[in-house]
Amino acid sequence: AKQTQRGQLGVYTRQMGLEIQSRVKMLQDLRLSFEHQRLYLHYQPQVSLPDGKPVGCEALIRWRDDQGRYIPPDVFIPLAERSGIIATIGEWVMRTAFSQAHLLHRSGFTRLRMAVNVSVIQFRSGGFLETLDRALLDSGVNPELIELEITESVAMLEADYLLDMLKQIKSRGVQVAIDDFGTGFSSLSYLQRLSIDRLKIDRAFVDQLCESQDSRSIAEMVIELSHSLNLQVIAEGVEEQQQAERLAELGCHEAQGYFYAKPMEADALLRWLMNQEP
Ligand code: C2E
Ligand code: CA
Ligand code: CA
Ligand code: CA
């Protein structure tokens, strides 16, 4: 039995070694891809409920490695966060998305919001505000058209720091949404003190909205919370008309999801927007 155990341990550590190796490899690939400008953004429309009119879009990062394999952000963003390269990538995301927002503005979509995901690691790093300011200035975009999406895990930050950062961001006119709301453990008990504009209901709850009473309860809770705190609320991952109707009934202001449009390249977004009723 002892031998088997040792044998298993041997295999286990070798596997772990491999995992670490492949993570290091992936990180190297990511660095290289970034330098070679092989990262790009897709944009997914956000619409108002119940009329389905475009109100904004969310920038979502994409990576195809040098062998043409698509690697989802859920896989490489956590890696980038652990390695510190997230600051560099995050800055590039902001600059690219802000420029795109400005371009859309000049194409006549003067009220269209651009939402950008910001990692908590990036958000808590010194120099975030300077980076934000530079990106705003260089792109020429109206800051009021920009929204930063920060996940509920910001709750792990020190309250004073978080309050101050959000105030600073607000003072630039930039909007803030709390992403994946309802998935965290905290649900930010001091939400009413935060300078935020919008809560975003995670797609996990939208997915089961019409089937599961639990999901429905959470969606309801987030919408009611938004109403009572005078915040806007948006639901992501809307794939069916029934979900959109249910959300609208519950008083959800906006929606995003495959039912309306998938994330797409900038020029496809422009075409999509031009095909919508004014
Ligand atoms: P998220 O911010 O919660 O983004 C929503 C995810 O749901 C996106 O996945 C989007 O493509 C997907 N989605 C949208 N509508 C639907 C739908 O109707 N059905 C389904 N099944 N999925 C839908 P994606 O693009 O793979 O991004 C995954 C996560 O990676 C994001 O979750 C976000 O946390 C992170 N991420 C993406 N881009 C960035 C970025 O530029 N910076 C940072 N820090 N994180 C990013
Ligand atoms: Ca998001
Ligand atoms: Ca997320
Ligand atoms: Ca989400």
Automatic annotation (TrEMBL):
Which residues does the UniProt record annotate as the domain EAL? 23-277
Q: Which UniProt keywords apply?
A: Phosphoprotein
Q: Recall the GO molecular function terms of this protein's record.
A: cyclic-guanylate-specific phosphodiesterase activity
Q: Which GO terms describe its biological process?
A: phosphorelay signal transduction system
Q: What is this protein called?
A: EAL domain-containing protein
Q: Which organism is it from?
A: Motiliproteus coralliicola
**Lineage of the source organism?**
Bacteria, Pseudomonadati, Pseudomonadota, Gammaproteobacteria, Oceanospirillales
Q: Which residues of the full protein are shown?
A: 468 to 745 of 754
